[in-house]
## 1
Amino acid sequence: MKTVVVLGGEGIGIECVDATCELLTAAGLPIKVLTPPQGAAAQKSHGTPIPDETKQAAVNADGVLFGAAGPDSTAVVSWLRWEMGAWAGVRPIRFYPGMRSPLAQPEGIDYVLLRENSEGLYPGREGELADLARVMPDLRDRSGRSIKEYGDGRFAVKVVTPKGAERIARFACKLARARKAQGKPGKVTCVTKSNVLRHTDGLFQEVAERVVREAGDLLFEHFHVDDAARRLVRFPTTMDVVVCMNLYGDILSDLAAETAGGLGLAPSGCFGDNGWAYFESVHGSAPDIAGRGIANPTATILSAAMMLDHMGMSAEAQRLQAAVARIYRDGKTLTPDQGGSATTRAMTDAILAAYRNS
Ligand code: NAD
């Protein structure tokens, strides 16, 4: 029996994990689901959205499934991702026939967008320009303008380290190799803006290229993020493993999810050191549809499948993915974002029935 800790976050995060937990339990999987206090409820009862007992339960668990964060539960995802050092964000982008892709020919979209989760601009180190000008009076932009010349304003710091770039590049190689064993091309596509940010993005690109070329058995290509965005729309089936710096990965994964059929379909897993991992949908708490029971549960269910795989239950994970694929093929029990009228619960029940019948 494996233990799984489930933290809903808020909004549709809670709705989707509740439905997914019922599915996992009703499917008869050998897992025990724990739901320790978190989010707004924990803030009321424990004075914090992520109490120590919840952190301990997650650390001790075999698997951790998270819903989605919103303003009241940012601390939950911050702990799972940043404090626990989950530096590799694995975001599979896959079209299942029946998904409502806006592309004319989405068949064959099947790649992984790998997001560096810990560095870059995203962690948010910001301040006043006046303070920066005081400590770095000689800092100039590429046109020679000093910080002082800008006058009032604010800045953000982008951090790239060879260590951070190397570990995500090695992770990309591992993923690409595993996919190559299943017939994929064995290609790593690196995304930066190194033509402009030569020191930071340039370092990321240089390290990624070296690591992939040294691997010897994989192909390497690099695109600047603006070109990459276009290619993910125009040539999505040419992608295999797309490794992105933090903020680019955040943005491009929403775009990529949409090419397959929508944000409600995209799962993810975040991996760190010493076996730390947790799984979550790519989407957020969706306040515009929260409370209406119409959120698409696919992203959370596929995240749960990734979690099962991580816990060594790969046959069950594949069976769950196949059940999801079947529901899209049938097209009868889909939520409104996919052109249907089913509720979150009805779609989850249909996936459960397909799982049982397979
Ligand atoms: P969002 O991802 O919550 O929603 C964007 C759009 O996609 C909305 O129109 C929403 O209705 C739709 N959508 C998302 N998931 C869906 C689903 N399962 N089924 C159907 N439609 C779905 O992004 P947002 O509105 O920009 O952000 C809302 C909150 O979520 C913010 O507080 C943001 O910070 C947070 N957020 C959290 C995460 C995370 O927890 N990893 C990711 C993104 C945003």
Note: Residues 162-180 form the longest helix (19 residues).
## 2
Amino acid sequence: MDKVKVWNEFLEELRLKTSDLTFNTWFKDLSLINITDDKIMIAVQYQGQKTHIVNNYLEMISEIFLEITGQMKQIVFYLEDEYKPEENFNVIEETINNKDTTDFVNNRKTNLKSKYTFENFVVGDANRYAYSCCKAVAQNPGKLYNPLFIYGKSGLGKTHLMHAIGNYIVANSNLKVLYVTTDEFMNEFINISKNKGNKEENLTYIDLFKSKYRDIDVLMIDDIQFLGSATVTQQEFTNTFNALRDNDKQIVICSDRSVDDLKMFEERLKTRFNWGLKTIINIPDFDLKVKIIKNKIKSEELMLDLSDDIIDFIAANCGSDIRNLEGTLIRLLAFKAIWGNQTLTLENAREAVIDYTDNMIYTDNSIAKILQVVSKYFNLTVEDLKGKKRSKNIANARMIAMYLCRILTEESYISIAAELGGRDHSTIIHGFEKISEEIKTDEELKNIISELKVKMSE
Ligand code: ADP
Ligand code: MG
């Protein structure tokens, strides 16, 4: 069975069966890990996507595969961390053919995605240093920091920055840039090693491989952590690395963990990674997430008009993976279309997002935490907020707490009322609406709320 063919047919069929929006939101970035006798293993990007697909599309997916393969197979979804790349090999052997290498040498493909640039990378405390390092390397490739080693958790913008470096260099020089994922590098190399039988042909491919990876000025290799279990490819990568660096060619490496935490890497390779500059991308804080969301909804791809309270709500509740934030926005766009393009209310947005991010949200912000943060901020006690005292400062802090509970948690008015000392839920609605109204004109109040939100996300 030609697995790649099956997979492509599957995607085509899925595209026909679903709307563009659904396809782009949920299925576009799926990839096939392997097809075995009884299983079809598929890689997904994040938990919310996995949950959503399993809950809503599993049956459809099984049916499509049944149609194509004529067999009923179990469909299993994996997150990036859940499978080891070795499991990948079967399908990879069939995917790559040396045509890629030939193509590259003839046409000088860079593999760069033009949509990832420095201009549309939003900078904040969490990524400012990484951003500057990348910018510096882009402006002086091969001269300043070699290699540049960027690391950080999934979805924080590593790949985006790599492409930004590449795009910058391509736009400002004649240098030859190549971006590859570690998987691609590994696959091509394994393919050559497998081909040993046909000596003559293989020699040509080895030359092509070498030319592809060495006859360039900038090599960017993504997700290097996957090289961990591949001993032979590691050796080849070390050779490539040496050849490039000896000639002052820039190398940029991305990893989801620090050099020290790279498992099963040869020491000499780790030592090399330590030669240049290492830079981490940290988890974005609330403010950066808000900035990124504002930036994304302005983009042509989305063009989504969201009120500040919805933006705050997403920033506070949808985790720190930016890929997930983007998914949430696309989801909102889909909902908006369903609701006939009327202005989205916080209520609608909440409904849309709940389904999307499932149980990974709302874990951080509980009412109890909000009461703690608010009382501390105003030098009061939690009891003050829950109690009956009606002095102006307490009443005010209480309303702010109501407002934050509404925005930052997934609790009903009734449960917020219960937590806030058994008030009537209409009191909570009133408090929420009053603050929502005042915040529009009262700058000081707006600042207080922003500060509190930051404290909530700490
Ligand atoms: P990683 O490689 O670290 O897993 P990516 O670079 O693929 O993450 O980023 C995931 C998504 O989030 C991409 O679409 C990227 O454009 C977006 N993204 C991440 N950080 C930022 C940022 N600071 N500004 C704008 N977009 C970002
Ligand atoms: Mg990446």
Note: The longest helix spans residues 47-69.
